[in-house]
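We modelled the chain as a single entity of 137 amino acids. Its sequence is:
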Amino acid sequence: MIATPLYQLAIYALVTVALIGFLLLAAWWLGAKRTQPGKELPYESGVLPTGNARLAWPVPFYLVAIFFIVFDVEAAFIFTWASAWDLLGIAGLTQITVFIVILAAGLLWLWLKGGLDWGPSRGRNADFSQSLRKSSE
């Protein structure tokens, strides 16, 4: 009786893959094949573009985003563990403790390396302004 749900899942997966393949093929077949010079130009609210659109963002901007994702996922794991802590027993407590200690060690390492310094800094601001000058030339 366990095999029946697996067949249903396999059929569902095949239908899904076939539908996605059909839609991609239809989009390729029905889509425009010709390009025009006007289509290749960047467009921003009717204003003609000037200068380079690729600005160098400072690395801390991306680091903040990555840190947020890492610690947001950590919070999801901890809340999940907290909802079933009585069922997991001492093994679950040990595993979540190891998990938190590893993340705390990573946070300490990040702090010691200066990854959490997002305030103004002469070195960082000078590097960023030099990279902006290089990209605009």
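As a brief sanity check on the tokenised model: The CA atoms of residues 38 and 53 lie 18 Å apart. The mean pLDDT is 80.
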